[in-house]
Design a protein that fits this description.
The protein is mainly α. The protein contains 31 helices and no strands. The relative contact order is 0.12.
Length: 616
């Protein structure tokens, strides 16, 4: 138990303790009579509707484009596949506080005012999310396709199936059935997303109906960004009462969405009346949105329920005047299932995804080149895209010189402490927990339950009570809470990686140690851990990069500029879209230095992974 206790303390403490502490510490903050009033509040309902639309569009578009990109890479020659893999890995490895401002800079050079209308702003955040999330989905799908036996694809080819037919009949079906759990978690992550709407649009344009005493909402205000804004605005007095109640309501909404989607995937034929109740409760809007993803990823036992639900939702929305993007999606779904020329629809979808992938490649290459050029340019404000002739004019090292003169090394040191502290403490906690789970299977079952809670609960909804707790304990402006937040976010991948590595280790050495009378601590520290050095190094590097690139936790928990990591310093220069005096050249130079440090730290990663699996 002593080996598992730190992991239990970390996951349960960071996810559940702050909410319990903030509730117990001040009973006046708990007013359940506010729940119905907040539920009916315009700002909350707008945020919930925007979050659902945003989550559905991004989850589906990333899934379809990612699987298509993985299939195209799978069919390419080895050289081009490696080139595509490198580009995907580079964009995926860019921290959000670097990639999103660069994307916003390109957006401002393309569109005069991205937030001129609600639809335009919404499309901007959708495009940004697709650009950021496409690499990881493609890499996961590519790993699935490479594990597939080539004989299946070859047999379909010999039977006369074309390229697109083989994709939709074989590869797409494998990805759809294998990634259901990942897509559910991704859906929840998008609903509580903070970073992207904050850095691209600040939740704007604000909607008149979203101005209420309990908050302000706009066309791109997700539930996570809604809570973040209220956390910044409500800092004292009775305001904590509304903030705590809003946080509890958002958490309940996320948990209900997760439970409902899980039930849809397991027992879809039993959820019709539950869905209809949600439609009535949410004014024939949100219920359809929560219901929609299952239509694409689930094989229903009774197809008439699927068509009935989609038809009722689309028809009721049109009759009541709720002509919104989700209504269009529902009609597209009906068209997808009843369209007489199914192969034509598949081809149109495949070519549309291919066009988006080509656009993604172009944007990625231009973004990387634009970032490097900005770091050597003399512009303080955002310049237009340079022509080839002017791109090499007036280049200098002045931006890099300014970084060293302005104390940027202090920010690098702070980020280094966060990365090293997170990596070292994480290796110890997760390795000990994996060892305990290896010895006693009940600990492994318990750990999976804690990880599930972390995946569902961790987000802005847990930061609100965490800030309240740290404020009461005088724990703000310290690095340790940020380290714990990073470890909590890293727990699922880090623990599972360590556990499966320990399980594959040769047990002969531990058995010999037991015969010689070694204690459990000696078996772990002197035998098991040294035998798993490659995997432990991978876990350390993974957590180190998470700590180095952390942004939301420092933004909420640190207010002293001398303790800023590089993420907050870069955010002050050009990350905030509300800044009137952005310094793009200095931001780009700092971003290049930050990415260079991360790249140097990540160099051993591929070799360690190969060594880990070759020694397997």
């Amino acid at each position: 138990m002593i080996f598992f206790f730190p992991f239990l303390l970390l996951t349960a403490g960071m996810t559940l303790f702050p909410a319990a502490f903030s509730a117990i510490a001040g009973r006046t903050q708990i007013r359940f009579d506010l729940f119905w009033e907040l539920f009916r509040d315009g700002s909350f309902r707008i945020s919930a509707q925007v979050s659902s639309l945003y989550a559905i569009f991004t989850t589906l578009s990333v899934f379809f484009c990612g699987t298509t990109a993985a299939y195209l890479l799978y069919r390419l020659p080895r050289f081009f596949r490696k080139a595509g893999f490198i580009l995907l890995f580079v964009i995926w490895a860019l921290p959000s506080f670097v990639s999103l401002p660069v994307f916003r800079a390109m957006l401002l050079n393309t569109v005069e005012n991205p937030i001129a209308s609600g639809l335009q702003a919404f499309l901007s955040v959708l495009t940004g999310r697709l650009w950021v999330d496409l690499p990881i989905m493609t890499l996961i799908a590519l790993a699935l396709f490479e594990d597939l036996s080539p004989s299946y694809d070859e047999s379909m080819r010999l039977e006369g199936a074309g390229t697109i037919d083989r994709f939709f009949s074989l590869f797409f079906q494998i990805a759809r059935k294998s990634l259901v759990g990942y897509l559910c978690i991704s859906f929840l992550d998008q609903m509580r997303d903070v970073t992207l709407p904050m850095m691209l649009t600040e939740g704007r344009p604000l909607l008149i109906a979203g101005f209420t005493p309990y908050g302000i909402a706009g066309a791109t205000t997700t539930l996570g960004f809604f809570l973040k804004n209220n956390l910044v605005d409500f800092t004292s007095g009775d305001s904590w009462t509304f903030l705590w109640s809003q946080n509890a309501l958002v958490t309940a909404t996320l948990l209900a969405s997760f439970w409902f989607m899980n039930r849809l995937f397991r027992r879809p034929e039993k959820t019709f009346w539950l869905w209809f109740g949600l439609e009535v409760l949410w004014g024939l809007f949100l219920g359809s949105l929560v219901f929609l993803p299952a239509l694409f990823f689930t094989d229903w036992k009774r197809k008439e329920h699927t068509y009935a639900c989609a038809g009722i939702a689309a028809g009721a929305s049109l009759i009541l005047g709720h002509l919104s993007p989700f209504t269009v999606i529902l009609w597209v779904f009906l068209l997808y299932h009843f369209f007489p020329f199914r192969k034509v629809f598949d081809r149109l979808l495949f070519f549309f995804n291919t066009a988006l992938i080509a656009l993604w490649i172009s944007v990625s290459v231009i973004a990387l080149g634009f970032l490097v050029w900005l770091s050597f340019s003399g512009y303080e404000y955002l310049p237009p895209f340079p022509t080839i002739g002017k791109a090499l004019e007036n280049l200098s090292w002045d931006n890099y010189a300014y970084l060293f003169d302005s104390g940027f090394l202090v920010n690098l040191k702070n980020s280094l402490w966060l990365g090293l502290g997170s990596g070292a403490l994480g290796v110890l906690i997760f390795s000990m927990a994996a060892y305990a789970a290896l010895k006693k299977p009940k600990y492994y079952t318990f750990a999976k339950g804690l990880i599930s809670i972390t995946l569902v609960m961790a987000g802005m909804n847990t930061f609100v009570p965490l800030v309240q707790t740290l404020e009461a304990l005088h724990g703000l402006n310290r690095f340790l809470p940020i380290v714990f937040a990073v470890l909590n976010q890293s727990a699922p991948i880090a623990f599972m990686t360590a556990y499966f590595a320990f399980r594959q280790t040769d047990r002969t050495y531990t058995e010999l140690g037991q015969i010689d009378g070694a204690s459990r601590w000696q078996l772990f520290w002197k035998i098991l851990l040294p035998l798993s050095i490659p995997t432990v190094s991978v876990v350390f590097l993974y957590i180190f990069i998470k700590g180095w690139s952390s942004f939301i936790a420092p933004l909420l928990l640190i207010s002293s500029p001398e303790k800023y990591p590089v993420s907050l310093r870069l955010y002050d220069w050009a990350g905030d879209p509300g800044l009137h005096h952005t310094r793009w050249g200095i931001f780009a130079a700092g971003a290049i230095l930050t990415v260079a440090v991360m790249a140097v730290c990540s160099i051993p990663l591929p070799a360690l992974v190969r060594k880990r699996w070759s020694s397997g």
